[in-house]
UniProtKB/TrEMBL annotation:
Origin species: Lactuca virosa
Keywords for this protein: Metal-binding, Transferase, Ubl conjugation pathway, Zinc, Zinc-finger
SUPFAM superfamilies: RING/U-box
UniProt keyword Metal-binding present: yes
Pathway(s) it belongs to: Protein modification; protein ubiquitination
Name recorded for this polypeptide: RING-type E3 ubiquitin transferase
Every RING-type domain range: 242-291
EC number(s) reported in the record: 2.3.2.27
GO molecular function: ubiquitin protein ligase activity; zinc ion binding
InterPro entries noted in UniProt: BAH1, SPX_dom, Znf_RING, Znf_RING/FYVE/PHD, Znf_RING_CS
Residues of the SPX domain: 1-173
Catalysed reactions listed for this entry: S-ubiquitinyl-[E2 ubiquitin-conjugating enzyme]-L-cysteine + [acceptor protein]-L-lysine = [E2 ubiquitin-conjugating enzyme]-L-cysteine + N(6)-ubiquitinyl-[acceptor protein]-L-lysine
Length: 346
């Protein structure tokens, strides 16, 4: 079965409606493929001597009003195809990223919050969020990301094939620069960690669920790597080594550019004290890796990833905890001593 049929079947499946994923945006693979098919016929006509000024009309089904509209596409510049194609994908990628971030944040709150916060969240959800429902929703969200990531990759590859160009490949780089590359989102890493945490602590629940992917955390060349194996046997790998201290990330934070660091290293790079927090860094401070500024204000604490690393590397995690507490205590002491000297004039 071709991917287009598989993707359509997935979108119409019961699992999508069960978790309201049918209300989330998705890559319009079938519609975009039709656009490329029309453009391909024009490319063939142009290559066989058709005038570059010849115009042909493309009939596109309007998703909102179910009407048909006509547009003109010229093969030489492909202005219509480029304008509609890439802007549409950019919007869809943005919507998918926003959906994933909000849904994963909610899952993490339900899983990691304790005491009264967790009780109130469960009460608000009318007690529907039992453990099996949580892990099933996590599984569905991972599959949602995977299917849309594959659709995005295939449609951009098909664009390059039709136009004999590298514009599709370059557009993927643009998505990464805009932090809209679905498969590289820190929220996907957090989601995979969430699923693996449940797999290790609730083996019977996860055994009953059948998934189209697999997850693994292993050490490769002395570096921890989180792997997500996709249905087509492609593998997404996420290196969990902090680029500052060159150790496994500890109490990890993801900056808005997508790079992940230890809390202590992120605070150091942002020129803030640990008790002040990563988000208190100045907007002028830059990421140590990509040098993009303004990335500290919306930093995300990777709670599930930290829990996963604590489970897998407990001895190292406890050693780092002692080190961080010592550094935090040292910074706090020096700060208040300096404040005391300032106000007393000593």
């Amino acid at each position: 079965m071709k991917f287009g049929a598989i993707f359509t079947e997935y979108l119409l499946g019961e699992k999508m409606s069960s978790f309201d994923l049918n209300k989330c945006s998705h890559v319009e693979y079938k519609r975009l493929k039709k656009v490329l098919k029309v453009c391909r016929h024009h490319c063939h006509d142009a290559n066989n001597g058709a005038s570059c000024g010849d115009e042909f009309r493309v009939i596109e089904e309007d998703r909102d009003q179910n009407n048909t509209v006509s547009d003109i596409c010229r093969y030489r510049s492909c202005q219509w195809c480029d304008g509609m194609f890439f802007s549409e994908i950019m919007k869809e990628a943005s919507d998918i990223t926003g959906c994933i971030s909000s849904r994963v944040r909610h899952l993490v709150q339900l899983h990691c919050n304790t005491g009264m916060q967790r009780y109130l969240l469960h009460l608000f959800q009318c007690f529907k969020n039992d453990q099996q429902a949580l892990v099933l929703e996590g599984q569905m969200l991972i599959e949602y990301v995977i299917m849309n990531a594959i659709a995005l990759r295939k449609i951009l590859k098909k664009y390059d094939k039709v136009h004999n160009s590298v514009s599709g490949m370059n557009f993927r780089s643009k998505l990464q620069a805009e932090h809209l590359e679905i498969s590289q989102s820190p929220w996907l890493i957090e989601l995979v960690a969430f699923y693996m945490n449940f797999s290790e602590s609730n083996e019977m629940i996860c055994y009953e669920l059948c998934s189209s992917f697999s997850c693994d955390l292993s050490v490769t060349d002395s570096e921890p790597v989180l792997k997500l194996v996709l249905p087509d046997y492609a593998v997404l790998e996420y290196n969990l080594t902090c680029a500052v201290c060159l150790h496994t990330v500890f109490h990890p934070y993801a900056l808005s550019c997508g790079h992940i660091f230890c809390k202590m290293c992120a605070c150091s790079s942002g020129s803030v004290l640990m008790f002040e927090g990563v988000k208190s860094a100045s907007p002028k401070m830059k990421c140590p890796v990509c040098r993009e500024d303004g990335v500290f204000g919306n930093a995300v604490r990777m709670t599930e990833l930290d829990l996963l690393l604590k489970r897998r590397f407990r001895k190292e995690w406890e050693e780092r905890l002692v080190e961080e507490r010592d550094e935090d205590g040292k910074q706090t002491k020096e700060f208040w001593e300096s404040q005391t000297r300032y106000f007393t004039g000593i």
